[in-house]
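does this look right to u?? adenosine monophosphate version
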Amino acid sequence: MYSENHLACALRAASIGRNDAHLLLNHQTGETQSYGAFFANAERMAAALVAAGIKPGDRIAVQVPKTVAVLELYVGAVLAGAVFLPLNTGYTASEVAYFLQDAGPNLLVCDPVNLAKLTPVAQQAGVSEIWTIAADETGTLTDQRNAQQSGFHPVARMADDLAAILYTSGTTGRSKGAMLTHRALASNSQVLKDYWHFTRDDVLIHALPIFHTHGLFVATNVTMMAGGSMIFLPNFDAETVRDYMGQATALMGVPTFYVRLLQTHGLPDAARGMRLFVSGSAPLLAETHDQWRAQTGHAILERYGMTETNMNTSNPYVGARRAGTVGFPLPGVELKVCDPKTGAELAQGEIGVLEVRGDNVFAGYWKMPEKTAAELRDDGFFITGDLGLVDDQGYVQIVGRDKDLIITGGYNVYPKEVELLIDDLPGVNESAVIAVPDADFGEAVTAIVVPQNGAVLKPEDIADALRENLARFKQPRHIVIVDELPRNTMGKVQKNALRETYKGLGTN
Ligand code: MCA
Ligand code: AMP
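got this back:
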């Protein structure tokens, strides 16, 4: 019945005729929701969007707490042919202003607690409509949904049409909107479902945020396409996740999830009946992999992806899951290792920039043709900016990044964005933002700051000044004031030297 809408059809296929099948357990309310009830609500959401004047291709910006209604809105947006644009709940109003200006959405859905500060921001960006939804699902979004009937006939959308735009930060400090098509999302989830052996018997513990690829597309789409179910948690809490393991089969998480779970009591017993633990979004330390196997008997399956490409590689379901590797290119994904300067393909075993091609790859950056041309080759290969190699058994290893990027607890922070804000503060001459190893978050954002001549700078004043304009996860965990930054003979700041000098900060 959803056959004219590429992604909706894929999401519904496994549950057609199984309306009573259980889709999710809502941890907050303790209620379960069936596939039939979920899709009926998603259809109401779609009807509400159309009634509000949303047309195919219109963007819907969403910065809200994680709730089931927001998942319904996501599927409703797909059914209505709109483009879903989720935003990290940590973003400040000034950060949201940029996304609204850039993407030009027709509707903003926000948390009622942010309504007062986002209304002027939205008005300035020409957003005509604002709806709200709170963590307890009260707000105008659910009012709008409840005013509609189910039975919405999906708007026709082809494989090449856009389903979502997800912003990803850029080396220049300006975020780029990755345009994701129905094909990219549907095909990647289909591949992952098969590769990871997801079936209708699976119960996934869903503790990731739903404003990023990992929680929204990998976790949710894969479960729905398998006709399985989820335990839907508002956020990650290690004890809660451990306690649900007895009722579940699978968990998807960032490395911090596994680091924190290892510190809970009773993990070996809790994990016994689980089938699969997946890690991604940031490198999983071999040490964490080994400790997990020692405690639970399970080898965590590590995979590698990006906002622009969805998932590219995965360790095997059957076969050795090797610590420190991200496995093999997924079916339908071509991967090559290239010289960072010339782009020429390198021999097996050599380190270079990973490039990937396949149905999973995005359609380009929203309104940024130059950036698209710089990163997406004419032949369809996307230059990931990740440095890696393919070992003699075909496993891909990521050894570093050709991009100045910090990944903290699975969230990306581009140093440039933080440096620009610090450099603008009174009394600051210049700054360098680097990552230092952190036991919990993997990497911790660290700012090394040089005062102007004669100025007295205090780390706490810098931290205070950044609070208004920067999401919490981007704010430096450590701020160090120094007289000067190390430079090479060309005058370039030597971030490697800084990383070496300050590598102990995160473990103090
Ligand atoms: C929260 N804080 C953070 C982070 N998260 N700081 C740095 N990095 C973070 N990731 C802040 C909080 O605001 C709080 O600030 C303080 O740190 C400690 O909070 P805590 O309660 O410990 O944090 P939490 O709420 O437990 O969150 C940690 C988390 C969360 C569970 C690891 O960050 C998370 O769910 N991360 C998943 C991110 C994710 O889904 N990434 C996928 C991107 P204060 O000290 O002021 O109180 S998609 C992707 O990367 C690609 C496509 C892929 O391959 O998947
Ligand atoms: P994002 O911009 O959130 O899509 O982040 C994508 C980046 O996360 C990739 O380019 C990698 O640098 C990193 N990443 C994702 N998964 C892994 C992994 N398993 N190991 C190492 N890095 C990863």
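Residues 208-209, 212-215, 235-236, 254, 256, 280-281, 305-307, 408-411, 441, 472-473 surround methylmalonyl-coenzyme A (ligand 1) (CB under 6 Å). idk if thats expected tbh
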